[in-house]
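step: validate -> pass
step: tokenize input -> pass
step: predict -> running
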Amino acid sequence: MRHQRAEIPLKLTGLATARRFFSDCFAEQGGDRECLWVAHLDDEARCLHLSRHLGDVGGVAFPIRNIVVDAAQHGSAAILLAHNHPSGDPRPSESDLRATRRLAAAAGALGCRLLDHLVFAGDECTSLRRLGYL
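step: predict -> pass
step: emit ->
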């Protein structure tokens, strides 16, 4: 499922702002199944496009091709990812790390930077950039 916000473009500058924004996104949808949110940003960190991809209790697919196509269509300078772990463990899984690396490489080929990938679990949030994976 895809969403596009019609509001004045939100600036997602910094981890604290991104964390608050995505926390609100997850609060709206409930936390009983995994969900991936993808924010496409311009070169001033304004949100150009927002998409949501629903998964199930055990995981969510990372539609790398769709994300890269959206980046090309919207002229994204950067991408910011967030997904939740209903299990309550905010640590990224091996598949999270693999998909993040693949997306970073694919987006980079378009001149688009993957800023961060946040993993939410309850009130906790883990940044893959802060962990050194990006």
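step: describe -> Helices lie at 15-29, 64-74, 94-109.
step: cleanup -> pass
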